[in-house]
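Contributing new records

If you add data, match the layout below exactly. Sequence lines come first and carry their own label; structure lines follow with theirs. Keep one chain per record. Anything else will be rejected by the validation script.
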Amino acid sequence: MQLQNQRRGTSLVVRVSGRLDAVGTPAFEAHCQQALAQGERALILDFGPLEYLSSAGLRGVLAVAKSVSAAGGEFTLANARGMVREVLEISGFLRMFRLLDSLDTPADQP
């Protein structure tokens, strides 16, 4: 798994590549928690290059979303495609969190 940060307006986009599974989830959570500790309040997870999302990865996403919410921030998913999107749908995450089809979609649109 690889993580890359990019600024998009007032939001921090965390681009997640590879596999978000039991091996990579602790690093993913630590990366996002560090961003929150540095004052980030609007977090967008870009799943465009993500190939695999396990139940451990889902738990990590939920933990990050809860931390963002507890900090009074805004949490958004973006670019989930294929099997990653299917996992998010089946797990109910797409009912809990906003999903942007593209980073070109303004974050203030539903």
